[in-house]
Design a protein that fits this description.
Layout lengths: L1 H34 L4 E6 L4 E6 L3 E2 L8 E6 L3 E3 L2 E4 L4 E10 L9 E10 L5 E5 L2 E5 L4 H10 L12 E2 L4 E6 L3 E6 L1
Antiparallel strand pairs: 1-13, 2-4, 2-12, 3-11, 4-7, 5-6, 7-8, 8-9, 8-10, 9-12
């Protein structure tokens, strides 16, 4: 009978040792990740903070439609209180609100894009205030009308196209005070 209790006691001790090995292994696996864990800090971004952006592609009024999304990229880090809040390369979105191609009688092309927001690496979004881009082509209506009086095919003269070239730069302003999380 004493051997039975002794055997039972040894089985329990061995089971506890197995569990402790698993816990120790788990701790050893988690410690390296804990050592590299980033500190998260809350930073206040004030309304009116300037974000320098550039277009990531050519956009022509004749090739886009109203409501289409246009991408922009942050060209310089935005630093607040010594912390990079908006890193270079962050993507921002804009929406086309007007796209008119140039046409006969010298009518110029028009392209309007409203910058909406940008998404931070943490997933938070910041919105822009009154950050519109409005590009127009050259108006050739007077030339078309005057020359059409003498030579009728001149009415087919078109105004120039509205195009935003890749790398077009604009400074957008943050719409409202926001608090964002930043990894240090």
């Amino acid at each position: 009978m004493e051997y039975y209790f002794f055997f039972f006691y040894i089985c329990i001790v061995l089971k506890i040792i197995q569990i402790m090995k698993k816990i120790l292994l788990l701790i050893l696996c988690v410690i390296p990740f804990a050592l590299y864990a980033q500190e998260i800090r809350k930073v206040n971004v004030k309304a009116g903070t300037i974000v320098p952006l550039e277009s990531t592609s050519n956009v022509r009024a004749s090739e886009v439609q109203k409501g289409q999304t246009v991408n922009f990229r942050v060209v310089r880090d935005v630093v607040i209180d010594g912390v990079t809040v908006i890193p270079i390369g962050t993507i921002s979105k804009g929406t086309v609100y007007e796209a008119k191609r140039s046409s006969w009688w010298g009518t110029k092309g028009r392209l309007g894009i409203k910058l909406r927001n940008l998404t931070l690496p943490s997933g938070e979004q910041l919105y822009f205030a009154d950050s519109d881009i409005y590009i127009t082509g050259k108006n050739r209506t007077p030339l078309s009308v005057v020359t059409a009086l003498f030579v009728w095919p001149c009415m087919f003269i078109c105004g120039s196209k509205a195009e935003m070239k890749i790398g077009y730069e604009i400074d957008a302003a943050i719409a409202s005070n926001s608090t964002v999380s930043v990894e240090l």
